[in-house]
Amino acid sequence: xxxxxxxxxxxxxxALALGTTPAAAHAPDPLAxxxxxxxxxxxxxxxPDDDTGKAxxxxxxxxxxxxxxxxxxxxxxxxxxxxxxxIKATDTAHRVGALLLNSGGPGGQTIGDPPWxxxxxxxxxxxxxxxxxxxxxxxxxxxxxxxxxxxxxxxxPGHDRAGFDRSTAFAGELARxxxxxxxxxxxxxxxxxxxxDMDVIRAALGERRIxxxxxxxxxxxxxxxxxxxxxxxxxxxLDGVADPDRYGPRLLRGSERANLHALRDWAAWAAARDTxxxxxxxxxxxxxxxxxxxxxxxxxxxxVGGYRVDDxxxxxxxxxxxxxxxDAAYGDFAAAVRDLRDAADGKPVxxxxxxxxxxxxxxxxxxSAYGSVQMAVLCGDVGAPRDPETYWRDVQRAxxxxxxxxxxxxxxxxxxxxxxxxxxxxxxxxxxxxxxxNATGDPRTVYEGARAVHRDWxxxxxxxxxxxxxxxxxxxxxxxxxxxxxNAYLATGRLPAADVTCAARPVPTP
Length: 510
Hints:
Blueprint: H1 3-17, H2 32-35, H3 51-58, E1 62-69, E2 79-87, E3 97-102, H4 114-121, E4 128-134, H5 161-182, H6 191-204, E5 210-215, H7 217-228, E6 233-239, H8 256-271, H9 274-277, H10 283-299, E7 302-304, E8 307-309, H11 314-320, H12 327-344, H13 353-363, H14 368-381, H15 388-401, H16 406-410, E9 435-439, H17 447-456, E10 461-466, H18 480-492, E11 500-503
Parallel strand pairs: 3-4, 3-5, 5-6, 6-9, 9-10, 10-11
Antiparallel strand pairs: 1-2, 2-4, 7-8
């Protein structure tokens, strides 16, 4: 059965379950054994490093494994499991239903999120079963791992053609490793199959409809689920909104200006704390240090502890340092830049904790599973250009506009060497009633994308956090205004009468 035919069959099965097609009421459900499976709920003991499990147990959560087909065109074939956690509603008299979560990535674990999301929901949290889901092949679910020497396939292309050619060879090696180790499952590591899993979870939980909260990539997953299963969704909150027209392996293109804005804001913060970090007394002096580090890494790799930071990695450290707008994240990044400056000056460096974690993620295979799934989803959802010269031309044009971020966001990746996607991308419905949340300075899912989605969906409302360089807002940033707007919608099911604008918190001075 083709992917299109399978989707049609699933949609028909959903219509039958809702009783909208009486004439075919007795048609068999090809997924009946999955929809009606019995879930065994147990204590959330998640392994040797069990801090997540401890938090779940303290919050009263229970965990279960949901069985789903690997290939929805062959429901009687191989199966995989999807791990879920649940904090049940305590206000059963006013229970709304289940709220499924996805914290992004793709490849991010969500099983540990119900406790903090429940806390962010305040009183309305008591009316929901808050459900964390590790998507297929992520975390506690059936795993996949391409055995990469890195947790991230994203790299800068270096400063010249030789560096770009090295990054091209690296991307090709990563793609070949995935075919070697996980080729049998790669066609099914997709957002559409993850959405199908969500609907199996819905049915296994005994819910007619589910509500949904998705961050970053999770917003795209929510868009796809609500399009594939429109009668199965209740209240939908998308935070850090992915524009489906720009989603794909090259989704970082277009984020350069937002990243530069975030970098400049951080530099002003660091300059105000020169006595602590010693990076310069004004913003331009701090930015000059960042430029000096990049230039030094281009001449010879910087020695940072046991790591060698070359011109493909140095810009990624800066990129990774710019997603959270708060003192703790800014301080971590400032300490990292100070370490890189010292390395550029030839001093021995023992990296600060954040920099050590970041370099370990990029330069060792400890997080290979995360990087594998992330890239497999992106490559499996949308095809990418295959000619390296396309990327080289884009890198050169982008470098002329923005020499730091432009080459990174336009560089080649493993999707250039991936097999074509098994299914066409989902055409997202244009009548999706959803609450959209985005910060104006978000350097990952940029605000222009959220506005474009809002324009395309007249039935949506947009909550804007103005003046913050923040990726993910609800329950993360600390905006009482934005959190209240989300909670009011989750409580009533009614979108705000008009869009909501919230102010960023004042920047504290040292």
